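Reader question, answered in our methods column.
A reader sent in the components of a multi-part assembly and asked whether the whole thing could be modeled at once rather than chain by chain. We filled in our standard form and ran it. Here is what they sent:
COMPLEX SIZE: two components
ENTRIES:
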Amino acid sequence: QSVLTQPPSASGTPGQRVTLSCSGSSSNIGRDNVNWYQQLPGTAPKLLIYTNNQRPSGVPDRFSGSKSGTSASLAISGLQSEDEADYYCAAWDGTLNGWVFGGGTKLTVL
Amino acid sequence: QVQLQQSGPGLVKPSQTLSLTCAISGDSVSSNSAAWNWIRQSPSRGLEWLGRTYYRSKWYSVYAAFVKSRIIINPDTSKNQFSLQLKSVTPEDTAVYYCARGPAVLDPWGQGILVTVSS
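And here is the structure of the entire assembly that came back:
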């Protein structure tokens, strides 16, 4: 199983705010930054949030990230149908000396 | 704008070597501030980082422990690209393989190539 822990699924209705969680340990999230990716079916992961809470150019401000201790969260406000996708967290692991990922959360917009 | 374009076969026989290439545009494989990664994704194992190569006055390659005995990631400065070789593949190596630029953030990613290991 994945080193970082994410709930396998989440859902919300249009306009709602949803929060996705990512849990790690002192060797990854606890000591390094967290990045979040959005993956649409059949496409490569797209960077959504980097360095815990920074948005790349072009990413709507409806997406926000936070980190506390060994956990991180991705919040999506004003949920839209186009937000239906898989979301992954990632962090560098200092013990494994490599990138580790969460198992992904499949977000459904009802 | 950095772009990564992957190429390579989509079918590899068991026990053979999987070989993929990632061509870089908008950056240099020899950059002193970048690192060039390979990651794979399968339904059963999720996203797995395989390793990276980077240049800091000399070339370094770092590999994930679970593939360290079977993997080689090499830069090709003449073509501004880098490659992945995974030896002695089994059906467990069937996955979508991605390349990505680092080091602090994996971005951008290549388009991905589905590699199936089957006879």
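What stands out: Chain B has a mean pLDDT of 98. The two ends of chain B are 39 Å apart (CA to CA).
Send us your own complexes using the same form.
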